[in-house]
Design brief:
alpha/beta; 7 helices; 19% strand
Amino acid sequence: MIDNEIYHGLDNEWWNTTDGPVAGLHQMNPIRVSYFCERMAQHFAGEPLAPRTAGATHAGRRRLLDVGCGGGILCEAMAQRLPDWDVVGVDISAPSVAVARAHAAAQLSQARQQHDDDQQQQQQQPHQSSPPPSSSPPPSPPPAPHPLSRLSYEVASAYALPFESGTFDCVVMSDVLEHLEDLEAAMDEVARVLRPGGLFVFDTFNRTALSWFLGIFCAQTLFAFLPDHTHVWSLFVKPSELEALFASRAMRLHDTRGLFVFANPLSVLGHLTGLGHVHMHFSFGSSTAVQYFGSATKGQDQLGEGGDGEERGEGLGEEDEDVGWVQVESGQQQQQQQ
């Protein structure tokens, strides 16, 4: 049985980017943010803001929901990249959400203090020409809203999202699908809160012999990179299974892209001997046999309609592929949920 309780006790280790238990997620963050933002830019390019359900707020801005946000690692990065979006993170772990809120608040406070310091420094600089004594300096323009000021968090289950239907333009689940014991119920909620024509982006583990060897045997048993039951192989998800789940919910899978992970062997040795921590390098690959990204769109009116017209990636159909991953030390250190 999968142990999702381990996230409750991470506390500030969520933001230990060097050698903490989720340092791998920090190392993975640039490539997943890059993929998600790329797909969002392609999908929403030139599209006017869609009408929302009656009574919905946030008119004039798009909304992104991160389901399973953990300590906010992905949420903060997405908010920084998408200053015109409202970003909402939800997680069942109240302690993790508390960490996410506190970290975002600290970042906001630091940004405001830096702005005040910059303003004070500018006022203290001598002017080349002194103004007439009777004149007063023009007032400083108000600072632009910080991107993190449009970031919020809620404690909630993926199986019961506390939002009205059709109120999000995009929903993301990163390193979450493989932790869900009722994937159908979670996808029901994703499809419900996603507005017609909206985008769903994700990354997850494939269920293949190679993903068992690397993600379970090597990561949890042989090298103990992760605690036992962090991942359970039976919960890994094949692309074809996701495609069927999407199709039954008026959604269409448009793209899959393999994730290739390489761990420096010397850093692995340091991890095993307690003398260092693992350094991982992430890149896109052609094989989806272990881990993969993907995107799907919700139809405008009926099953199969909507979306951006792209063909599905070549990774679909590779769910039983066990080649192309020669670095055994690769994506095991990938720490689970955000």
